[in-house]
């Protein structure tokens, strides 16, 4: 990611999400995705694909073609599967996405290490791909899970769930963590824990109310941005303006 961000001079990860299309019209999504990519690729360093495209287009011969185009433009391709199952299942999910060419996968740390994340990290390290873990999500309900106070299973002490996840991301050697741009104070708090060792990916800019400059100032390394760019009348202009707003911050 560092290399891609440096060569593209951008820390924007495009969330290539589109609203629902009737299944019989799903090819429109591919056309839309290709046209956005063509317009926006000079202003971003990576693309994050979610169920919005995998469900209608499928993986092989579907998003795989997009992944090839993304990587062909010097960008990284991240699959936002929010992997959340038992280890053997996680491993198989990862193998399929990596076979389709994805560079990294997003996973949910609530599943824990043993027989959960461990097999996922193993297969990812073996194939030289990355794992990005959720730490504090951007929506309001995040406080019910990521924000709750827990008794840490290792220390027996009271702590906040997201503080525990940030420490675990460091311990596991995660390639990144996700912290909502809607909570810049939490970005700053988590940054103090992970330092420069685990990059922070921050979604929730614009449509969800988060501010790009505030997120970067608080310590976000990368911004995950969807509707602010994709739903704009001129996506390239929107991406360029967003990039300008965080240059030098
Ligand atoms: O910019 P938006 O709001 O149109 O899109 C944000 C994208 O980031 C969308 O793909 C969400 O699924 C994702 N996201 C969040 O919005 N909030 C989170 O807390 C986490 C993610 C995410 O990317 O998780 C990996």
In helices, the fraction of residues equals: 40-55%
Spans with pLDDT under 50 lasting ≥5 residues?
none
Give a quick account of the main beta sheet: strands, pairing sense, barrel closure. 8 strands, parallel, barrel
The whole-number mean of residue pLDDT values reads: 97
Class based on secondary structure composition and strand pairing? alpha/beta
Describe the global form: globular
Order of SSEs: HEHEHHEHEHEHEEHEHEHEHH
What small-molecule ligands were found? 6-(methoxycarbonyl)uridine 5'-(dihydrogen phosphate)
What would you note in describing this structure?
A hairpin with a 6-residue loop joins strand 6 and strand 7. The longest helix has 14 residues. The protein has an eight-stranded parallel β-barrel, surrounded by seven helices. The mean pLDDT is 97. It is an alpha/beta fold. 48% of the residues lie in helices and 18% in strands. Bound molecules: 6-(methoxycarbonyl)uridine 5'-(dihydrogen phosphate) (O7M). The site of 6-(methoxycarbonyl)uridine 5'-(dihydrogen phosphate) has 20 residues, from strand 10 and helix 11.
In terms of topology, how is this protein built?
Elements: H1 2-8, E1 12-15, H2 27-40, E2 46-49, H3 51-57, H4 59-72, E3 76-83, H5 87-99, E4 104-107, H6 113-126, E5 130-136, H7 142-145, E6 149-151, E7 158-160, H8 161-172, E8 176-179, H9 184-194, E9 200-203, H10 212-218, E10 222-225, H11 227-230, H12 235-246
Parallel strand pairs: 1-2, 1-10, 2-3, 3-4, 4-5, 5-8, 8-9, 9-10
Antiparallel strand pairs: 6-7
Helix pairs in contact: 2-4, 3-4, 5-6, 8-9, 9-10
The protein binds 6-(methoxycarbonyl)uridine 5'-(dihydrogen phosphate).
């Amino acid at each position: 990611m560092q290399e891609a961000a440096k060569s593209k001079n951008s820390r924007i990860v495009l969330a290539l999400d589109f609203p629902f299309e009737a299944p019989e019209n799903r090819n429109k999504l591919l056309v839309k995705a290709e046209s956005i990519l063509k317009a926006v690729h000079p202003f971003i360093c990576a693309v994050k694909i979610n169920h919005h495209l995998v469900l209608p287009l499928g993986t092989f011969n579907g998003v795989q073609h997009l992944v090839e185009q993304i990587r062909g433009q010097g960008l990284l391709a991240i699959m936002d599967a929010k992997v959340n199952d038992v280890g053997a299942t996680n491993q198989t999910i990862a193998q399929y996405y990596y076979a389709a060419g994805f560079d990294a996968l997003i996973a949910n740390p609530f599943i824990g290490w043993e027989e959960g994340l461990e097999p996922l990290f193993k297969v990812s390290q073996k194939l030289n791909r990355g794992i990005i873990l959720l730490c504090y999500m951007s929506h309001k309900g995040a406080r019910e899970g990521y924000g709750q106070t827990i008794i840490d299973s290792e220390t027996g002490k009271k702590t906040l769930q997201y503080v525990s996840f940030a420490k675990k991301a460091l311990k596991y050697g995660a390639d990144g963590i996700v912290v909502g741009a809607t909570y810049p104070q939490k970005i700053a708090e988590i940054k103090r824990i992970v330092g420069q060792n685990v990059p922070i990916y921050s979604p929730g800019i614009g449509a969800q109310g988060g501010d790009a400059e505030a997120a970067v100032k608080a310590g976000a390394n990368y911004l995950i941005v969807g509707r602010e760019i994709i739903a704009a009348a001129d996506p390239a202009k929107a991406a360029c303006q967003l990039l300008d707003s965080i240059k030098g911050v």
